[in-house]
Amino acid sequence: MENSFFNSPKSLLRLSVAVAVATILLKGYAGWLTNSMGLISDAMESFVNLASASFALAMVTIAARPPDAGHPYGHHKAEYFSSGFEGVLIIGAAVAIIWFAALRLLQPQPIEQLGWGMALSVLSSALNGALALLLFKAARVHRSIALSADARHLMTDVWTSVGVLVAVAAVALTGWLWLDPVIAIAVGLNIVREGFKLVWRSSQGLMDEALEPESLAALQAALDRFKAQAPEGDRLRFDDVATRRAGQRLFADLHMHVPGDWSLQRAAALRDGVEQALMDAVPGLRVTIQLLPLNMEARAVLLEQEEGA
Questions:
Q1: Within 10 Å of residue 163's Cβ, how many Cβ atoms?
Q2: How far apart are CA 200 and CA 83, in angstroms?
Q3: Can you list the domains of the chain with their CATH numbers?
Q4: Is the pTM value of this prediction over 0.90?
Protein backbone atom coordinates (compact mmCIF):
# COMPACT_ATOMS: atom_id res chain seq x y z
CA MET A 1 0.00 0.00 0.00
CA GLU A 2 2.74 2.45 0.96
CA ASN A 3 4.53 1.89 -2.35
CA SER A 4 1.54 2.73 -4.55
CA PHE A 5 1.65 6.24 -5.99
CA PHE A 6 -1.59 7.61 -4.55
CA ASN A 7 -0.92 6.19 -1.06
CA SER A 8 2.61 7.58 -0.73
CA PRO A 9 2.87 11.01 1.01
CA LYS A 10 6.02 11.87 -0.97
CA SER A 11 4.39 10.97 -4.29
CA LEU A 12 1.32 13.05 -3.44
CA LEU A 13 3.47 16.04 -2.53
CA ARG A 14 5.38 15.69 -5.81
CA LEU A 15 1.98 15.78 -7.52
CA SER A 16 1.13 18.88 -5.46
CA VAL A 17 4.30 20.58 -6.74
CA ALA A 18 3.34 19.77 -10.35
CA VAL A 19 -0.22 21.06 -9.85
CA ALA A 20 1.14 24.26 -8.26
CA VAL A 21 3.28 24.91 -11.34
CA ALA A 22 0.27 24.31 -13.59
CA THR A 23 -1.99 26.64 -11.59
CA ILE A 24 0.68 29.37 -11.57
CA LEU A 25 0.73 29.27 -15.38
CA LEU A 26 -3.06 29.13 -15.73
CA LYS A 27 -3.90 31.78 -13.13
CA GLY A 28 -1.00 34.02 -14.11
CA TYR A 29 -2.13 33.99 -17.73
CA ALA A 30 -5.72 34.63 -16.63
CA GLY A 31 -4.61 37.64 -14.57
CA TRP A 32 -2.52 38.98 -17.46
CA LEU A 33 -5.42 38.60 -19.92
CA THR A 34 -8.05 40.25 -17.73
CA ASN A 35 -5.91 42.80 -15.84
CA SER A 36 -7.98 41.83 -12.78
CA MET A 37 -6.33 42.42 -9.40
CA GLY A 38 -8.51 39.65 -7.96
CA LEU A 39 -7.19 37.10 -10.46
CA ILE A 40 -3.63 38.40 -10.09
CA SER A 41 -3.83 37.99 -6.30
CA ASP A 42 -5.15 34.47 -6.83
CA ALA A 43 -2.14 33.70 -9.03
CA MET A 44 0.24 35.11 -6.40
CA GLU A 45 -1.09 32.65 -3.85
CA SER A 46 -0.21 29.79 -6.21
CA PHE A 47 3.47 30.69 -5.78
CA VAL A 48 2.94 30.03 -2.09
CA ASN A 49 1.40 26.67 -3.01
CA LEU A 50 4.57 25.79 -4.92
CA ALA A 51 6.94 26.84 -2.13
CA SER A 52 4.92 25.16 0.62
CA ALA A 53 4.50 21.89 -1.30
CA SER A 54 8.24 21.80 -2.03
CA PHE A 55 9.11 22.40 1.62
CA ALA A 56 6.52 19.85 2.76
CA LEU A 57 8.09 17.28 0.44
CA ALA A 58 11.50 17.93 2.02
CA MET A 59 10.11 17.65 5.57
CA VAL A 60 8.15 14.44 4.85
CA THR A 61 11.34 12.94 3.44
CA ILE A 62 13.19 13.82 6.65
CA ALA A 63 10.31 12.59 8.85
CA ALA A 64 10.49 9.18 7.16
CA ARG A 65 14.09 8.63 8.22
CA PRO A 66 14.60 5.86 10.78
CA PRO A 67 15.79 6.63 14.33
CA ASP A 68 19.53 7.15 14.74
CA ALA A 69 22.01 7.83 17.54
CA GLY A 70 21.23 11.56 17.54
CA HIS A 71 17.45 11.10 17.17
CA PRO A 72 16.52 7.87 18.99
CA TYR A 73 12.79 8.66 18.79
CA GLY A 74 12.89 9.32 15.06
CA HIS A 75 12.40 12.48 12.97
CA HIS A 76 8.59 12.60 12.89
CA LYS A 77 8.26 16.17 14.18
CA ALA A 78 9.85 17.51 10.99
CA GLU A 79 6.33 17.66 9.53
CA TYR A 80 5.38 20.39 12.01
CA PHE A 81 8.06 22.64 10.53
CA SER A 82 6.36 22.15 7.17
CA SER A 83 3.00 23.27 8.54
CA GLY A 84 4.49 26.28 10.32
CA PHE A 85 6.54 27.31 7.28
CA GLU A 86 3.46 27.08 5.08
CA GLY A 87 1.52 29.27 7.49
CA VAL A 88 4.23 31.95 7.46
CA LEU A 89 4.38 31.88 3.65
CA ILE A 90 0.61 32.23 3.41
CA ILE A 91 0.63 35.26 5.71
CA GLY A 92 3.43 36.86 3.69
CA ALA A 93 1.58 36.33 0.42
CA ALA A 94 -1.61 37.75 1.93
CA VAL A 95 0.17 40.94 3.02
CA ALA A 96 1.51 41.39 -0.52
CA ILE A 97 -1.96 40.80 -2.00
CA ILE A 98 -3.56 43.36 0.32
CA TRP A 99 -0.83 45.93 -0.46
CA PHE A 100 -1.18 45.69 -4.26
CA ALA A 101 -4.97 45.59 -4.02
CA ALA A 102 -4.94 48.79 -1.95
CA LEU A 103 -2.84 50.48 -4.65
CA ARG A 104 -5.29 49.30 -7.33
CA LEU A 105 -8.19 50.61 -5.22
CA LEU A 106 -6.68 54.09 -5.44
CA GLN A 107 -6.42 53.76 -9.23
CA PRO A 108 -9.11 51.34 -10.53
CA GLN A 109 -8.58 49.84 -13.98
CA PRO A 110 -10.99 48.07 -16.36
CA ILE A 111 -11.14 44.29 -16.72
CA GLU A 112 -10.43 42.78 -20.14
CA GLN A 113 -11.04 39.44 -21.94
CA LEU A 114 -13.21 38.17 -19.11
CA GLY A 115 -14.29 34.91 -20.77
CA TRP A 116 -10.84 33.39 -21.26
CA GLY A 117 -9.65 34.59 -17.87
CA MET A 118 -12.55 33.01 -16.01
CA ALA A 119 -12.23 29.74 -17.96
CA LEU A 120 -8.53 29.41 -17.06
CA SER A 121 -9.24 30.21 -13.42
CA VAL A 122 -12.04 27.61 -13.23
CA LEU A 123 -9.70 24.97 -14.71
CA SER A 124 -6.95 25.71 -12.17
CA SER A 125 -9.46 25.68 -9.29
CA ALA A 126 -10.75 22.28 -10.40
CA LEU A 127 -7.18 20.92 -10.32
CA ASN A 128 -6.61 22.31 -6.83
CA GLY A 129 -9.95 21.00 -5.55
CA ALA A 130 -9.36 17.47 -6.80
CA LEU A 131 -5.86 17.40 -5.33
CA ALA A 132 -7.09 18.80 -1.98
CA LEU A 133 -9.66 16.01 -1.61
CA LEU A 134 -6.98 13.42 -2.39
CA LEU A 135 -4.60 14.96 0.17
CA PHE A 136 -7.29 15.09 2.88
CA LYS A 137 -7.94 11.38 2.45
CA ALA A 138 -4.23 10.54 2.51
CA ALA A 139 -3.66 12.78 5.57
CA ARG A 140 -6.21 10.77 7.56
CA VAL A 141 -4.65 7.46 6.49
CA HIS A 142 -1.07 8.49 7.24
CA ARG A 143 -1.86 10.90 10.14
CA SER A 144 0.30 13.47 8.33
CA ILE A 145 0.06 17.14 9.35
CA ALA A 146 2.12 18.08 6.28
CA LEU A 147 -0.47 16.55 3.92
CA SER A 148 -3.31 18.03 5.97
CA ALA A 149 -1.76 21.52 5.87
CA ASP A 150 -1.24 21.34 2.12
CA ALA A 151 -4.82 20.13 1.63
CA ARG A 152 -6.25 22.93 3.79
CA HIS A 153 -4.23 25.50 1.91
CA LEU A 154 -5.37 24.18 -1.46
CA MET A 155 -9.01 24.13 -0.35
CA THR A 156 -8.66 27.72 0.86
CA ASP A 157 -7.25 28.54 -2.58
CA VAL A 158 -10.31 26.94 -4.20
CA TRP A 159 -12.77 29.02 -2.18
CA THR A 160 -10.64 32.09 -2.78
CA SER A 161 -10.86 31.48 -6.52
CA VAL A 162 -14.63 31.07 -6.32
CA GLY A 163 -14.91 34.42 -4.53
CA VAL A 164 -12.65 36.11 -7.07
CA LEU A 165 -14.64 34.74 -10.01
CA VAL A 166 -17.90 35.96 -8.49
CA ALA A 167 -16.35 39.38 -7.92
CA VAL A 168 -14.94 39.61 -11.44
CA ALA A 169 -18.33 38.69 -12.89
CA ALA A 170 -19.97 41.32 -10.65
CA VAL A 171 -17.54 43.97 -11.91
CA ALA A 172 -18.37 43.08 -15.51
CA LEU A 173 -22.12 43.30 -14.82
CA THR A 174 -22.15 46.47 -12.70
CA GLY A 175 -19.14 48.38 -13.97
CA TRP A 176 -17.98 49.01 -10.40
CA LEU A 177 -14.21 48.88 -10.90
CA TRP A 178 -13.54 49.40 -7.19
CA LEU A 179 -15.16 46.03 -6.43
CA ASP A 180 -12.21 44.09 -7.95
CA PRO A 181 -9.50 45.36 -5.52
CA VAL A 182 -11.93 45.23 -2.59
CA ILE A 183 -12.51 41.53 -3.20
CA ALA A 184 -8.74 41.06 -3.51
CA ILE A 185 -8.31 42.64 -0.06
CA ALA A 186 -11.00 40.33 1.35
CA VAL A 187 -9.16 37.38 -0.21
CA GLY A 188 -5.94 38.52 1.49
CA LEU A 189 -7.60 38.79 4.90
CA ASN A 190 -9.05 35.28 4.55
CA ILE A 191 -5.60 33.94 3.65
CA VAL A 192 -4.12 35.63 6.75
CA ARG A 193 -6.67 33.81 8.91
CA GLU A 194 -5.77 30.45 7.38
CA GLY A 195 -2.06 31.15 7.78
CA PHE A 196 -2.39 31.85 11.50
CA LYS A 197 -4.38 28.64 11.94
CA LEU A 198 -1.58 26.60 10.34
CA VAL A 199 1.09 28.28 12.49
CA TRP A 200 -0.98 27.58 15.61
CA ARG A 201 -1.44 23.89 14.74
CA SER A 202 2.28 23.56 14.11
CA SER A 203 3.19 25.15 17.45
CA GLN A 204 0.83 22.84 19.31
CA GLY A 205 2.42 19.80 17.69
CA LEU A 206 5.93 20.92 18.61
CA MET A 207 4.74 21.32 22.21
CA ASP A 208 3.72 17.64 22.43
CA GLU A 209 -0.03 18.16 22.27
CA ALA A 210 -2.14 15.35 23.74
CA LEU A 211 -4.16 13.05 21.52
CA GLU A 212 -7.62 14.20 20.49
CA PRO A 213 -10.57 13.44 22.84
CA GLU A 214 -11.82 10.59 20.60
CA SER A 215 -8.50 8.73 20.90
CA LEU A 216 -8.33 9.34 24.65
CA ALA A 217 -11.84 7.93 25.03
CA ALA A 218 -10.84 4.88 22.95
CA LEU A 219 -7.82 4.30 25.22
CA GLN A 220 -9.92 4.48 28.38
CA ALA A 221 -12.56 2.18 26.91
CA ALA A 222 -9.86 -0.35 25.99
CA LEU A 223 -8.47 -0.30 29.55
CA ASP A 224 -11.98 -0.76 30.99
CA ARG A 225 -12.68 -3.70 28.65
CA PHE A 226 -9.36 -5.32 29.51
CA LYS A 227 -10.05 -5.11 33.24
CA ALA A 228 -13.56 -6.50 32.74
CA GLN A 229 -12.37 -9.46 30.63
CA ALA A 230 -9.12 -10.35 32.41
CA PRO A 231 -9.39 -12.92 35.25
CA GLU A 232 -7.13 -10.66 37.31
CA GLY A 233 -9.08 -7.51 36.37
CA ASP A 234 -10.28 -6.86 39.93
CA ARG A 235 -6.65 -6.83 41.06
CA LEU A 236 -5.38 -4.30 38.51
CA ARG A 237 -5.24 -0.52 38.49
CA PHE A 238 -4.25 1.87 35.69
CA ASP A 239 -3.39 5.53 36.27
CA ASP A 240 -1.23 8.48 35.19
CA VAL A 241 -2.12 8.07 31.52
CA ALA A 242 -0.18 10.63 29.43
CA THR A 243 -0.35 10.93 25.63
CA ARG A 244 1.38 12.95 22.94
CA ARG A 245 1.54 13.25 19.18
CA ALA A 246 4.77 13.58 17.18
CA GLY A 247 4.02 13.87 13.46
CA GLN A 248 2.62 10.54 12.31
CA ARG A 249 3.51 8.84 15.60
CA LEU A 250 1.19 8.59 18.61
CA PHE A 251 2.50 7.81 22.09
CA ALA A 252 0.91 6.82 25.41
CA ASP A 253 2.57 6.29 28.81
CA LEU A 254 0.79 4.90 31.86
CA HIS A 255 1.24 3.00 35.11
CA MET A 256 -0.16 -0.49 35.66
CA HIS A 257 -0.44 -1.56 39.31
CA VAL A 258 -0.44 -5.32 40.02
CA PRO A 259 -0.29 -7.36 43.27
CA GLY A 260 3.17 -7.25 44.81
CA ASP A 261 3.40 -11.02 45.17
CA TRP A 262 3.15 -11.63 41.40
CA SER A 263 6.18 -12.92 39.53
CA LEU A 264 7.84 -10.59 37.03
CA GLN A 265 7.00 -13.01 34.22
CA ARG A 266 3.28 -12.96 35.06
CA ALA A 267 3.17 -9.17 35.30
CA ALA A 268 5.13 -8.71 32.07
CA ALA A 269 2.85 -11.10 30.19
CA LEU A 270 -0.21 -9.19 31.34
CA ARG A 271 1.43 -5.90 30.38
CA ASP A 272 1.95 -7.23 26.84
CA GLY A 273 -1.76 -7.95 26.62
CA VAL A 274 -2.65 -4.41 27.75
CA GLU A 275 -0.25 -2.89 25.22
CA GLN A 276 -1.81 -4.89 22.40
CA ALA A 277 -5.33 -3.90 23.47
CA LEU A 278 -4.38 -0.21 23.43
CA MET A 279 -2.63 -0.42 20.06
CA ASP A 280 -5.69 -2.15 18.61
CA ALA A 281 -7.91 0.63 19.97
CA VAL A 282 -5.79 3.44 18.50
CA PRO A 283 -3.93 2.46 15.28
CA GLY A 284 -0.36 3.70 15.13
CA LEU A 285 -0.05 4.05 18.90
CA ARG A 286 3.18 3.23 20.73
CA VAL A 287 2.66 2.34 24.38
CA THR A 288 5.02 2.42 27.37
CA ILE A 289 3.68 0.85 30.58
CA GLN A 290 5.48 1.10 33.90
CA LEU A 291 4.78 -1.80 36.27
CA LEU A 292 4.18 -0.94 39.93
CA PRO A 293 2.96 -2.94 42.94
CA LEU A 294 -0.52 -2.11 44.21
CA ASN A 295 -0.63 0.58 46.90
CA MET A 296 2.68 2.02 45.67
CA GLU A 297 2.96 5.15 43.58
CA ALA A 298 5.82 6.08 41.23
CA ARG A 299 8.45 8.29 42.84
CA ALA A 300 7.73 11.12 40.40
CA VAL A 301 4.05 11.09 41.39
CA LEU A 302 4.89 11.20 45.09
CA LEU A 303 7.23 14.13 44.54
CA GLU A 304 4.51 16.02 42.66
CA GLN A 305 2.05 15.40 45.48
CA GLU A 306 4.57 16.61 48.07
CA GLU A 307 5.26 19.77 46.06
CA GLY A 308 1.55 20.50 45.69
CA ALA A 309 0.85 20.02 49.41
A1: 17
A2: 9
A3: 5-206 (1.20.1510.10), 213-308 (3.30.70.1350)
A4: no
